[in-house]
Write a structure and sequence with these properties.
Radius of gyration of chain B: 44 Å
CATH superfamily of the largest domain in chain B: Domain of unknown function DUF4159
CATH class of the largest domain in chain B: Alpha Beta
Number of strands of chain B: 39
Structural class of chain A: alpha/beta
Shape of chain B: flat
Low-confidence stretches of chain B: 320-324, 662-671
Shape of chain A: elongated
Distance between the termini of chain B: 116 Å
Mean pLDDT of chain A: 77
Strand order of the largest sheet of chain B: 18-17-19-20-25-24-23
Distance between the termini of chain A: 42 Å
Number of helices of chain A: 8
Strand content of chain A: 15-25%
CATH topology of the largest domain in chain B: Rossmann fold
Strand order of the largest sheet of chain A: 6-5-4-7-8-11
Helix content of chain A: 25-40%
Structural class of chain B: alpha/beta
Mean pLDDT of chain B: 79
CATH class of the largest domain in chain A: Alpha Beta
Largest sheet of chain A: 6 strands, mixed
Number of domains of chain A: 2
CATH topology of the largest domain in chain A: Rossmann fold
Number of domains of chain B: 7
Largest interface: A-B, 38 and 28 residues
Oligomer: heterodimer
Strand content of chain B: 15-25%
C-alpha cells in the first residue's frame, strides 16, 4: 500500500465516522484576539450576518444604523442588531510516540491508529462546523476542507523515536481549545507542564487516554521480560500473573491523577479502549468540546 | 535372562542407567524455564515492582517427576522387558505337530495355529526337525523338516468343514523312527482317535492340547405340528446352559438378516436340547440357514433345503358349499392330501390372489369372471401354478369349448365321456405308464386306479405335447400348458372319487408332490437321491460361511446319501446340493450326530490351549515415555506462562473434537445435513415458483425475473406469498419441492437424461405442473412449427404427458381467480394446450361449464412468452414492453391474471370446478 492511499484511507474512514454526528458547535469562550467572524452565533448582538434583534435606538447610534423600515411602522426608531458570530480554534495533539504502536491482539487497531482516527474525525466535524482546526506543532489552525487533507497527511507521516510522548503546546492558539490524545503511559511531568502552559494561555480542552484492552487486563503469566516499545525500558518478572493486581492499581492511580490534573485546569478527561468502537469516544469529545458540562 | 517377578529383561545391563536419574534430577532442577520477551507499553507502570516469591526460579517438582518418569520409561523400555517370559523345557528328536483340522477347531483356529507356530518355533530353536499334519487331509508321508520350512505353511493352513476321518490311515504313513508328538485336538471323540493316540505313544511322548470349552453342534431343523424344531448338541454335558438359535434368510428386500431366534436350554447333564420356532409360512419359506449366533464354526450352521418350505395352496371349490356328504365334496381329498404338507388358504379367488399363493386349485370351477380371470392370468404369468380338476360343472359348461380358454391347457369336447358304467360300453380305464418327459415319470402305477368318467380334450396339434398323463387308450388324463412363468394343469377327472378312484390312491398324493403342490418329506431317502448327480450350489467353509460352489464337481446320489447319513467328508463338502427338481442340504451335523468329548489313553499329558503369552513391554514403555515427554512440553509451556495462546488452541481443539464426536454420534442416530439440504430448505420454507434452467443465460434470467414479477403480483393480490423464484437444474435438483415449474423451451436445450425423465415423470404423476413456453407465438401460426416447437416435441417425447386439447372455454383455468378467456403473454395470439377433458364430460343444460372434477392438468403448453410479460426488474418496473400503449399494458395485466389463475390452479386444484361455485360464478358472469 502506498502512503498516499493510506492517507486517503485514513481520511475516508475519518469522514465516515464524522458523518455520523451533526456538525459540532463548539461553544466559544472567546477572546477578542482570536475572534474571527464565523458561522457560530454567540447568542448576543455583534458582528455577523444573521439577524439578532431590533432595539430602540439610543443616543449615539449612528443614523445609518437605524433600520428605517422597522422604524416606519412605529413611532420610535429601531436599530437592527446582528448576531455576533465567531469561529473557534481547536488544536489537536496526537501522541506520535512508539508506545502508541502497541496492539494487544492480532486484528486490533494499534492505539496510535485509533488516536489518529479520532483526531481526524473530530477535525472533520469541527471543520464542518466552521471551526479552525490545527495540529499541535504540525499544522496551524485553519478552516476549510483542504485542512482535512493537510491534517491527514501530517498525521500519517508523523513518527517519533521516543518511547513515550509529551503533549506539544507549540502552535496552540490562546483561548482556543485543545485535545490531547495519548496513552499517557510516560512521565506525567510532560503532561502537567503542557496543561499548565495551556491553561496559562486560556486554552481549554480534553485529554483522551487511548488504551489497549491488554493494558487494562494485563493477561500475562509466567516468567516474562517486559520491554517498552522502543526498548528503552525493560522489566523482568518470574510470575507475571502475580503482578496483575499491583499493575492495575498503578494504572488506576495514574488515571486518577490525570483526571485530577484535568479538573484543576478545567479540562475534561476520558479513557478510551481500542477494543471499543471509536464512535463512543468521538461522541464524548463532541460533548466535551461543545458544552463543557 | 534377568527377571523381576513376571517381567524379564533382554538387556538388563541398560538398567544401570537408572542410577543416572538422581543426577538428572539435580541438573534439571537447576535450570529454570526460559523467560518470554514481550513488548508492552505498560512496563512504565511495572518498574519497581518485585516478585513475591522467588521459588519459581526452579523447575517445579512435579515437572521434574514427569521428566524423570519419561527418562525412566525410556531406559526400562530399551532394556527389553518381557512379560511372562517362558521357561521352556528342552526336548530332543523330531517333533510331530498334529492338528485335527476339522470344523470343531474353526472357532479358535487362529489361536491353534499360533500355538502350533510357537511349538514349531521352539522346536527350531532347539534344533529339532518338525512335521505338521492335519488329520482332515488325505494321509500322506510324514516328513520331518527344519522348522523354518513350516513357519510360512502354518499360517496358510485352514480348517476343513468336516470332521477328521479315517484316523487309523495316518498310523500307516508315520515314520519308523521315534518322535515326540503334540496333538492339538478339537475335544471331540472321533472314530480311531484312541488307536492313533496309542500309536503316537508308542513312538514317543504324546502331549495333547485341547480347549476345555464345550463344542456345540446344530442339528438340521425339522418340522413338527406347524412349528420348526431345532436342536443343539454339546460335547460336555455338565452344567445347565442356554444357547440361542437364529434363523436367517433374506428379508423382502433381499437383504439377509435374522428372521427369528429361539432360546434352547440344556439341563445339567443334557447333551442335547431342542425347541421350536413358530414362524409364519412367509418367513419360514425364506429361512436359508439356522445358526448359533456368535459361534464361528460349520457345526453351528445348518443350511435348510426344500424340506422346510411349505407351499401356500388355495383350494377353491365350486360355488356355495352344498350340504352334501363331506366325502363327496370336490375338495375333501385335496384337503386331506395337502393339509399335513402345505399351508392351505381359504377364500374366494379374488381374496386368495392377494395372498400370493404358490398354487391355486380349482376343483370343478367352470366360469370365472373377467376380473378374476385377468387377475389369475397375471398371477400365472408371475409363476403361479393353477391346478384344475374337471367335474360335472366343467363338463356341462362351454368353457374352452370352441376356443382355448387362457386358463385351460386344452380345448374340451362337449359332455365328456363315461366308460364302464351301467349304461356304457367298455371297462373302466386304467392309467398308462407315464411318458419320460412327464413330471410323473417313474411313479409306480397302482392297479386299482380306474377312471370311469372324464372330460375329453379336443384333438389338437399341441395336445400330445401338453399331455403329461394318459389312460391306457391314450386319452389325456392330465394336461399342462405353460403360461408365462407359471403353468396351468388340468386333471380331466374330478378331485373326489366320483369319476375315478385316483384320489383314493397313494398315486394321487405322489402326483401332487411331483407337481410341486405339496411338500416332500423332510429327510430324503437314499433311493430318492440315487441315480442323479447332485451338483453343489453353495458350500460351507469350516467357519460356517457359505460361498458359491463354483467349479466343485457334482457327486453321485449314493455318495450324497452316505454323506447325509455319516457326515460330509473331503469329497463331499457340506453345502446345498441341487438335483433335477429339488435341493438337498448336507450339513456337518446330521440329525443323529452325537458330540462326545474325546477320551485319551492313560499317560497322555493334556494341556489347555490357554497359555499366558510372552509379551514384550518395550513398545508400550517407549510409547509411555514419549507420551510423558509430550505432556512435559505442555507442562513446560504452562510453567513458563506461554500457554495463554495455546489455551485458545486447546479450546478450539476440544470443540472440534466434541464436534467430531457429536457428529459421529449424530451420524449413527440421524444422518447429518447433506449437500442438498440447503437447497431443500430454501425450496420448502415457502411456496417457491421455479423455472427450469435451460442453459441460455438470457432466457434463464428472463424466466427468473418473470416469476419474480408474477410472485409480486401474487403477493399483492392473493393469499399466495411466494418466496423469490429458484432456477432448477432438472438433471441435478430435486423437483418434488416445487408445485410449479416454468419451462421456457429453447431450441438447443439438450434432451434430459433417463434419470431426469424419471424425476420429471414422477413429478408430473405426483401433482406437479409444468408450464412449457415455446415463446414463439409471434412466429408460429396454426400448424406451423419452430425450432422451439421441435425441441419441445423432442423433450416431451419422454414425458408421461396425458392426451392434450386446446384449452376449452370452460376449463377451470378460466376461473380459478380471475374470469379469463384469453391467456396472453408477451404474445397474445398463441393457443395453449392442457390435459384433455374425459370424453364423457357433458355440458349440462343451464350450466356454464362441464363438471370436470378431475385433477390438475400436469402440463400447460403454449408459446406466448409469459415470462417476458411478467418480468420486472429489482425495482418492480416491467423489463420488456408488451404491445403498444394502454392496450399493451392491458395485455400485460391479463397476462398477470393468467399467471395468477395458473398458480391458483396449481395450488387449489379443481376447487373452482366444483359446482358449488356455480351460483356465484353465474352471478359474476351476469347470466
Amino acid at each position: 500500500m502506498t502512503p498516499g492511499s493510506e492517507n486517503g484511507d485514513l481520511r475516508t474512514r475519518a469522514e465516515a465516522l464524522g458523518q455520523t454526528l451533526p456538525p459540532l458547535l463548539a461553544e466559544a469562550e472567546m477572546l477578542a484576539s482570536t475572534v474571527m467572524l464565523g458561522e457560530h452565533g454567540r447568542r448576543r448582538a455583534g458582528l455577523g450576518d444573521e439577524f439578532w434583534q431590533y432595539r430602540p435606538a439610543h443616543a449615539g447610534d449612528a443614523a445609518r444604523s437605524i433600520d428605517w423600515r422597522r422604524s416606519a411602522r412605529s413611532d420610535a426608531h429601531f436599530v437592527r442588531e446582528r448576531e455576533w458570530q465567531a469561529a473557534q480554534s481547536v488544536t489537536l495533539w496526537v501522541d506520535p510516540s512508539k508506545s502508541m504502536g502497541f496492539t494487544g491482539a492480532k486484528g486490533r487497531e494499534a492505539k496510535g491508529a485509533r488516536a489518529r482516527l479520532l483526531a481526524l474525525a473530530l477535525a472533520v466535524l469541527l471543520l464542518r462546523g466552521g471551526e479552525r482546526v490545527g495540529l499541535a506543532g504540525l499544522a496551524l489552525p485553519r478552516s476549510g476542507r483542504a485542512q482535512i487533507v493537510r491534517m491527514a497527511a501530517r498525521l500519517a507521516g508523523e513518527t517519533a523515536d521516543a518511547d513515550y510522548g509529551a503533549p506539544e503546546v507549540a502552535g496552540m492558539v490562546g483561548h482556543g481549545r485543545a485535545v490531547f490524545l495519548s496513552d499517557f503511559m510516560g512521565d506525567l511531568a510532560g503532561v502537567e507542564s503542557a496543561l499548565a502552559r495551556a491553561s496559562d494561555r486560556g486554552v481549554k480542552g480534553a485529554l483522551v487516554q487511548v488504551l489497549d484492552p491488554a493494558e487494562e487486563e494485563f493477561p500475562f503469566d509466567g516468567r516474562t521480560i517486559f520491554e517498552s516499545m522502543g526498548g528503552s525500558l525493560s522489566f523482568e518478572t518470574r510470575k507475571a500473573g502475580e503482578l496483575r493486581d499491583r499493575y492495575l492499581a498503578r494504572l488506576a492511580e495514574r488515571k486518577d491523577r490525570l483526571a485530577v490534573l484535568a479538573r484543576t485546569v478545567g479540562w475534561h478527561f476520558s479513557t478510551h479502549h481500542t477494543g471499543q468502537p471509536a464512535q463512543s469516544a468521538l461522541l464524548w469529545l463532541y460533548r466535551a468540546l461543545e458544552g463543557g458540562r | 535372562m534377568f527377571t523381576i517377578g513376571p517381567i524379564g529383561f533382554l538387556t538388563p545391563w541398560l538398567l544401570v542407567a537408572l542410577i543416572a536419574l538422581p543426577i538428572l534430577w539435580i541438573l534439571l532442577r537447576a535450570v529454570p524455564p526460559a523467560p518470554i520477551r514481550r513488548r508492552f507499553p505498560g512496563v512504565a507502570l511495572l518498574l519497581g515492582l518485585r516478585d513475591e516469591d522467588a521459588e519459581t526460579d526452579k523447575t517445579p517438582w512435579w515437572l521434574l517427576l514427569l521428566r524423570m518418569l519419561a527418562v525412566a520409561a525410556a531406559i526400562i523400555g530399551f532394556a527389553g522387558p518381557v512379560l511372562n517370559p517362558e521357561g521352556r523345557q528342552a526336548g530332543s528328536g523330531p517333533l510331530l505337530v498334529v492338528l485335527d483340522g476339522g470344523w470343531a477347531e474353526a472357532r479358535d483356529w487362529a489361536r491353534r495355529v499360533e500355538r502350533a507356530g510357537q511349538l514349531v518355533e521352539d522346536a527350531g530353536r532347539e534344533g529339532r526337525t518338525v512335521a505338521v499334519i492335519r488329520l482332515t487331509d488325505a494321509p500322506e508321508d510324514v516328513v520331518f523338516q527344519a522348522s523354518d520350512a513350516w513357519a510360512g505353511r502354518l499360517a496358510g493352513m485352514e480348517p476343513a468343514p468336516h470332521a477328521p476321518g479315517a484316523m487309523e490311515d495316518w498310523a500307516e504313513v508315520l515314520p519308523v523312527d521315534r518322535f515326540d508328538t503334540v496333538w492339538l485336538a478339537d475335544g471331540l471323540a472321533h472314530p480311531g482317535r484312541e488307536a492313533l493316540a496309542a500309536v503316537f505313544q508308542d513312538k514317543g511322548d504324546l502331549t495333547v492340547i485341547e480347549s476345555p470349552r464345550p463344542v456345540f453342534g446344530l442339528h438340521p431343523a425339522g418340522f413338527e405340528a406347524g412349528k420348526v424344531t431345532v436342536s443343539v448338541s454339546r460335547s460336555s454335558a455338565v452344567d445347565a446352559a442356554t444357547v440361542e438359535v437364529a434363523a436367517r434368510g433374506p428379508d423382502p428386500a433381499g437383504i439377509e438378516r435374522e428372521l427369528a431366534r429361539a432360546v434352547l436350554t440344556f439341563g445339567p447333564g443334557d447333551a442335547r436340547a431342542s425347541g421350536g420356532i413358530d414362524l409364519p409360512p412367509e418367513l419360514r419359506n425364506r429361512v436359508t440357514r439356522f445358526e448359533l449366533p456368535g459361534l464361528r464354526s460349520a457345526g453351528a450352521v445348518s443350511l435348510t433345503d426344500d424340506s422346510l418350505k411349505r407351499r401356500k395352496v388355495a383350494i377353491i371349490g365350486a360355488g356355495p358349499d352344498q350340504e352334501a356328504l363331506q366325502l363327496l365334496s370336490p375338495t375333501h381329498y385335496l384337503r386331506q392330501a395337502l393339509e399335513p404338507v402345505a399351508d392351505l388358504i381359504d377364500g374366494s379367488l379374488g381374496e386368495v390372489l392377494v395372498a400370493k399363493p404358490d398354487v391355486i386349485i380349482l376343483a370343478d370351477v367352470a366360469r370365472l369372471t373377467q376380473l378374476e380371470q385377468d387377475a389369475t392370468l397375471e398371477w400365472l404369468e408371475a409363476g403361479g401354478l393353477l391346478l384344475r380338476f374337471a367335474g360335472p360343472r366343467l363338463a356341462a359348461s362351454d368353457v374352452s369349448r370352441f376356443e382355448e380358454d387362457p386358463l385351460m391347457p386344452v380345448r374340451l369336447r362337449e359332455g365328456g365321456r363315461t366308460v364302464g358304467g351301467a349304461m356304457s360300453w367298455g371297462e373302466p380305464k386304467a392309467l398308462a405308464p407315464f411318458p419320460e418327459d412327464s413330471p410323473f415319470y417313474g411313479l409306480p402305477l397302482p392297479d386299482d386306479v380306474q377312471v370311469t368318467a372324464q372330460v375329453l380334450a379336443q384333438p389338437d396339434p399341441e395336445l400330445g405335447a401338453r399331455t403329461i398323463a394318459a389312460l391306457e387308450d391314450g386319452t389325456p388324463l392330465v394336461t399342462r400348458k405353460a403360461v408365462g412363468e407359471g403353468q396351468v394343469v388340468l386333471v380331466h377327472v374330478t378331485a373326489n372319487a366320483e369319476w375315478s378312484s385316483l384320489p383314493l390312491s397313494g398315486l394321487f398324493v405322489q402326483m401332487l408332490e411331483r407337481l410341486a403342490v405339496s411338500t416332500r418329506p423332510a429327510l430324503p431317502e437314499a433311493s430318492d437321491l440315487e441315480g442323479q448327480i447332485w451338483v453343489p450350489e453353495e458350500v460351507l467353509d469350516a467357519w460356517g460361511a457359505t460361498r458359491e460352489a463354483g467349479e466343485i464337481a457334482g457327486v453321485e446320489g449314493a455318495v450324497l446319501a452316505a454323506a447325509i447319513a455319516e457326515g460330509p467328508g473331503r469329497d463331499v463338502p457340506p453345502g446345498l446340493y441341487a438335483g433335477l427338481d429339488r435341493r438337498v442340504a448336507l450339513n456337518v451335523i446330521g440329525a443323529e450326530t452325537v458330540l462326545a468329548a474325546a477320551e485319551w489313553p492313560a499317560g497322555v499329558v493334556v494341556e489347555t490351549l490357554e497359555v499366558a503369552a510372552e509379551k514384550s513391554l518395550k513398545g508400550p514403555l517407549l510409547a509411555a515415555g514419549l507420551a510423558l515427554l509430550l505432556v512435559d512440553i505442555l507442562a513446560a509451556l504452562l510453567v513458563a506462562g506461554r500457554l495463554t495462546g495455546l489455551r485458545r488452541g486447546a479450546a478450539v481443539l476440544a470443540v472440534v473434537g466434541l464436534a467430531f464426536a457429536g457428529q459421529a454420534r449424530a451420524q449413527e442416530a440421524t444422518p447429518g445435513p447433506r449437500p442438498g439440504d440447503d437447497f431443500a430448505i430454501e425450496a420448502t420454507t415457502a411456496v417457491v415458483l421455479a423455472h427450469v434452467l435451460t442453459g441460455d443465460a438470457e432466457v434463464d434470467e428472463l424466466a427468473e425475473a418473470g416469476l419474480a414479477g408474477l410472485g409480486d403480483r401474487l403477493w399483492e393480490r392473493t393469499s399466495i406469498e411466494p418466496a423469490p423464484p429458484m432456477g432448477v437444474d432438472i438433471e441435478r435438483d430435486e423437483l418434488a419441492f416445487f408445485p410449479f415449474l416454468y419451462w421456457p423451451v429453447t431450441a438447443d436445450m439438450p434432451t434430459p437424461s433417463a434419470a431426469a425423465y424419471d424425476k420429471l415423470n414422477q413429478y408430473l404423476r405426483t401433482g406437479g405442473m409444468i408450464l412449457f413456453d415455446t415463446r414463439d407465438a409471434d412466429r408460429v401460426a396454426f400448424g406451423g412449427t419452430s425450432p422451439e416447437g421441435q425441441a419441445l416435441q423432442r423433450i416431451a417425447a419422454g414425458l408421461d404427458v396425458p392426451p392434450l386439447e386446446q384449452i376449452p372455454a370452460d376449463h377451470v383455468l378460466t376461473r380459478t381467480f380471475y374470469l379469463l378467456q384469453d391467456f396472453p403473454g408477451r404474445h397474445a395470439q398463441g393457443s395453449i394446450w392442457v390435459e384433455a377433458a374425459p370424453p364423457d364430460a357433458e355440458l349440462v343444460e343451464g350450466m356454464p361449464f362441464r363438471a370436470l372434477n378431475d385433477g390438475v392438468t400436469p402440463v400447460v403448453i403454449g408459446g406466448n412468452d409469459w415470462a417476458a410479460a411478467w418480468a420486472t426488474d429489482a425495482s418492480g418496473v416491467p423489463m420488456l414492453p408488451v404491445g403498444r400503449g394502454f392496450a399493451g399494458e392491458r395485455q400485460r395485466e391479463i397476462s398477470y391474471r393468467f399467471g395468477i389463475n395458473l398458480i391458483m390452479h396449481v395450488l387449489t386444484g379443481n376447487y373452482k370446478s366444483d359446482q358449488v361455485h356455480v351460483p356465484a360464478l353465474l352471478e359474476r358472469l351476469g347470466q
